[in-house]
């Protein structure tokens, strides 16, 4: 299984902090946002490589970071440069994923993650769930706020956690199951993934691909066993530093 990290955004909402520096490599205490995530993912036996897709502007920074941390993780890290240099010319998360798996190339199951969250559970649980179901999978969590549901992906599920439908930013949410940006796509579904954009899948958000896949293959949803902290603005970044910045505070 390959870990694909989508890290090609420009994080414009963080202003000067990320004008010339990638958000996933911002420090939370002695570690980075992405480093904390890889510390967990690297321990999963199924994972044999981390592929980080970023933009041309930040690729040298990621390359230097990967070189400086070459002994930190057991699995190798590959940096993929998507060639863009501005937010206006970005490819979109789905196209970045396709670039990552076609450029390497990949013929394996995929764990696809966004690189701007602190997580309070292990991805190992998610991988084990996908192995049990033997299908591509998404994560989900209960979200009581209709306003927040209207700003994210929302799924309908049956009693076995099979995904019946998925909507992006629905005006009238059909359930309280929200979808964070973490997915597993099985090798048997890679053909669908590779041809998704040419067959009408949206490009911008990683949830666009999940929405497309739900309509073309069987998927299940794993309910998160604990919470996460989404770093999407200056306020949330500084809050994360304040709450979780002390060494080993996430353990």
Helix content: 25-40%
What is the oligomer described by this structure?
single chain
Taking Cα atoms only, what radius of gyration do you get, to the nearest Å?
Answer: 17 Å
> What class do helices, strands and sheet pairing give?
alpha/beta
What is the number of strand segments? Answer: 14
Low-confidence stretches: none
Short summary:
The chain has eight helices and 14 strands. The chain has 251 residues and is α/β, with parallel strands linked by helices. The protein is globular.
Helix and strand layout, with pairings?
Elements: E1 2-6, E2 27-28, E3 31-32, H1 33-41, E4 49-54, H2 59-68, E5 77-81, H3 93-103, E6 110-114, E7 117-119, H4 123-133, E8 136-142, H5 146-149, E9 153-157, E10 163-168, E11 177-179, E12 182-185, H6 190-194, H7 206-214, E13 219-223, E14 228-230, H8 234-244
Parallel strand pairs: 1-4, 1-6, 4-5, 8-13
Antiparallel strand pairs: 2-3, 6-12, 7-14, 8-11, 8-12, 9-10, 9-11
Can you give keywords for this protein?
24% strand; ten-stranded mixed β-sheet; 251 residues; two-stranded antiparallel ribbon; 8 helices
Describe the structure.
- This protein has helices at residues 33-41, 59-68, 93-103, 123-133, 146-149, 190-194, 206-214, 234-244; strands spanning 2-6, 27-28, 31-32, 49-54, 77-81, 110-114, 117-119, 136-142, 153-157, 163-168, 177-179, 182-185, 219-223, 228-230.
- It has 251 residues and is an alpha/beta fold.
- Strands 1, 4, 5, 6, 8, 9, 10, 11, 12 and 13 form a ten-stranded mixed beta sheet that branches. The chain has a two-stranded antiparallel ribbon with strand order 2-3.
- Strand 4, helix 2 and strand 5 (77-81) form a beta-alpha-beta unit.
- The longest helix has 11 residues, at 93-103.
- It is globular.
